[in-house]
Predict the structure.
Amino acid sequence: MSYKIEIDRETDGRWIAEIADLPGVMVYGRTKAEAIARVKALALRVLADRVESEQSDSKLTVSFATV
């Protein structure tokens, strides 16, 4: 799976990062790098929960692209 990270800067200077393909995966960061790191971490938690709840034994490969 490959997910696109959408990044924008708010008027107050905070960075917002979102992965639209994963509902609810949106975070703020003080820097662009922090927002990207946080959104990746949240996405991995969401995906881990999905795998765990489905009790899937299939291999999961994930990549991220910043847009």
Q: What stands out?
A: Strands lie at 2-9, 15-18, 26-29, 63-66. The CA atoms of residues 44 and 62 lie 9 Å apart.
